[in-house]
Amino acid sequence: MTIQGRLDREWSDWFEGMCLTPAADSHGATTILTGLVRDQAALHGLLNALYGLGLPLLDLTCLEINPTPEK
């Protein structure tokens, strides 16, 4: 997920071990959070944390780590 604003890597524990990568785009300073979100409850917790910090969500992409093989 990409959020507007810059978070240091020190915030990683606060965001359940997610990897935080500083970036920039047309919105200015951004941070890319990458990591495993186990279920919808965990995703909801992350989104609530961002909301509580006043950090707008710019993008959310679901990436499959181990896609199931086609039969």
Fold and architecture overview:
The protein has 71 residues and is an alpha+beta fold. The chain has one domain (2-59). 20% of the residues lie in helices and 28% in strands. It has one helix spanning 40-53; strands at 2-4, 19-25, 28-34, 57-59. It has a 4-stranded antiparallel beta sheet with strand order 2-3-1-4, with helices on one face.
Task: Set down the secondary structure blueprint.
Blueprint lengths: L1 E3 L14 E7 L2 E7 L5 H14 L3 E3 L12
Antiparallel strand pairs: 1-3, 1-4, 2-3
Beta-strand fraction estimate: 25-35%
Estimated radius of gyration: 13 Å
Order of helices and strands: EEEHE
| Cα end-to-end separation | 31 Å
Indicate the overall shape: globular
Structural class: alpha+beta
What labels would you give this structure?
71 residues; alpha+beta; 4-stranded antiparallel beta sheet; 1 helix; globular
Write a short abstract of this structure:
The chain has 71 residues and is an alpha+beta fold. The protein has 1 helix and 4 strands.
